[in-house]
UniProtKB/TrEMBL annotation:
Domain (Metallo-beta-lactamase) ranges: 8-190
GO molecular function: hydrolase activity
Keyword Hydrolase: yes
Domain of life of the native organism: Archaea
UniProtKB keywords: Hydrolase
Protein name: UPF0173 metal-dependent hydrolase DFR87_07860
Lineage: Archaea, Thermoproteota, Thermoprotei, Sulfolobales, Sulfolobaceae
NCBIfam families (UniProt xref): PRK00685.1
InterPro entries in the cross-refs: Metallo-B-lactamas, RibonucZ/Hydroxyglut_hydro, UPF0173, UPF0173_UPF0282_UlaG_hydrolase
Family per record: Belongs to the UPF0173 family.
Amino acid sequence: MSQIRWLGHAAVEISMVGKRIVIDPMINGNPLSPVKIQYFQGVSIVGVTHDHGDHLGDTVEILKMNPSAKLYATYDLEMYLADQFKVPESQLIPANVGGFVENDGIKLALTKAVHSSEHSDPTGIVVSDSRNTIYHAGDTGLFEDMRLIGQVFNPDYALLPIGGRFTMDPKQAVLAVEMIKPRKAAIPIHFNTWDMIRVDPQEFVKGVKEKGYEAILLEPGQSIEL
């Protein structure tokens, strides 16, 4: 069964072709997380959009729990984690912003994001199999190249931050949906974790639907089948 499960904040679990992929797995310190770290036993791929603590999160611990799991992030960030936290080379998928990299039936790509980070550039992550393509935008402001991301990757689902202050707000994220043109639905993430990013997600949902696209508002722990 293929599905997307939101785990609060920017943490998202994607299940496809029998694999579990988790992106930006901040669990400890995530007041919205419906799961504990033990939940990630059996994860196949850990994707990290950038190195801020609320996105890098529990990546190192999850990789240690799963010695056969792979880390997917920019090469420079991978090298930092290898040097500072002894993540072995065997767990790294070397990559940077560009085209798809295939790993055991899953296609992965990194995209541009407009944000900040300490080690390497911030990114979005695209995850695809033969049936569905999912774009996780990471932390980002609105930028015109989202139109190109939509054209190149043609995502079925777009996971977009809407919390404002550090990322797009709901109105800007609606404009992002217009540029990306997700074929099935847009899903808001990165909001209401803390007061500084508290917004009304219904503003996003309403705006997306007014533009003729589908929006799905998930509660932390809720999933949709693809």
